[in-house]
Amino acid sequence: MMKEEECSPLLSQDTAGQEHPLTRNSTPTANIPCPAPWENQKGAWGCRCCPGAKCQAWREGQASSRPLSTGSSCVKYLLFPSNFLFSLPSLLALAAGLWGLAVKRSQGIGWDGPLPTDPMLVLVLGGLVVSVVSLSGCLGAFCENSCLLHWYCGAILFCLALEALAGALVVTFWKPLQDSLKYTLHTAIIHYWDDPDLRFLLDQVQLGLQCCGAVSYQDWQQNMYFNCTSPGVQACSLPASCCINPQEDGAVVNTQCGFGALHLDQNVAGQVVFLQGCWPALQEWLQGNRGVIGNCAVAIVMVQGTELLLAACLLRALAVHKAAEDTEPGPL
Fold first, then answer.
1. Sequence-separated (6 or more) residues with CB below 8 Å from residue 189
2. CA nearest neighbour of 241 among 257, 222, 221
């Protein structure tokens, strides 16, 4: 009977090791190696994301007889969905940022805008970082991969260190930061029509804070299109986001609601547009929402700390599980 390791040969061989040509009446007796049986190839195809102990057990044709404990399984299935939920909005932000950059490039808008950093680029980088970290936590928990979980823990620790550093810098340099924000508002007013992202952001700030300009609505005189000496049709006018009622009880925003508002008397203009600047309004908003901002910061840190603790517990459970499998006696 032919052994499992042997196949039908193509050449015959005598006892002296000499080969004879294969003829019509000759009987093939030489051996050639067979392909590796399927049982020996399972380890090369399956279980790529599983720990090494499980792969070794799979290659030996036996599954692990020691599943994770109930507590470790709960940790695993808590870590996976939580990171999956974080990855969804980050992937959405990444897609929106890439779409925005593609649209801007198709319209011939370059990178040298008035803002120091393109908002779409910030959205892309932020979405990319959060999605990569979250997906590493998902895959590490689902596949019980210690390498991915170690990388995930390191990324969370790095983010916590960056957040602590950012908080310390904000407290230390609060006064220069205020001056920088005020300068950014003035720059945004000057370059209002130069960048669509800048225009959108400034409109949202003015609508949300119900303000107009940086310090007062007269700051729009710094814009060459809204200045009263401008020859254009927008001279002495204001953007629609400065209007108290831009829709004027209609479904569509009236983009001409602020036309001629800069040459009106202050009392008359106050009935049409907001007179207060966005910088005083922003200071009032920060002052009134300090508790909410602090609670949000604490909540973010607590969520990251909880994720880090869950990942550390799962890593410890995997290490104990692997040690138990290594000491388990093999089959006789």
1. 202, 213, 214, 219, 220, 222, 223
2. 257
Instruction: Report pLDDT digits (tens) over 177-221.
Output: 999 999 999 999 999 998 888 888 899 999 999 999 999 999 999
**pTM score, whole prediction:** 0.68
Q: What is the pLDDT of residues 89-139, one digit of tens each?
A: 999 999 988 888 887 776 655 545 555 556 778 888 999 999 999 999 999
Instruction: Enumerate the H helices of the chain as residue ranges.
Output: 38-45, 52-59, 70-106, 119-143, 146-172, 174-190, 196-209, 266-269, 278-288, 290-327
Burial class (CB in 10 A: 0-12, 13-18, 19+), 75: buried
Q: Could you tell me whether strands 19-20 and 12-13 are parallel, antiparallel, or unpaired per DSSP bridges?
A: antiparallel
Residue 214 phi/psi, 5-degree rounding, is -85, -60
Place of tokens 């009622």: 245
Q: What is the DSSP letter of 331?
A: P
Measured CA to CA, the distance from residue 290 to residue 170 in angstroms comes to 14
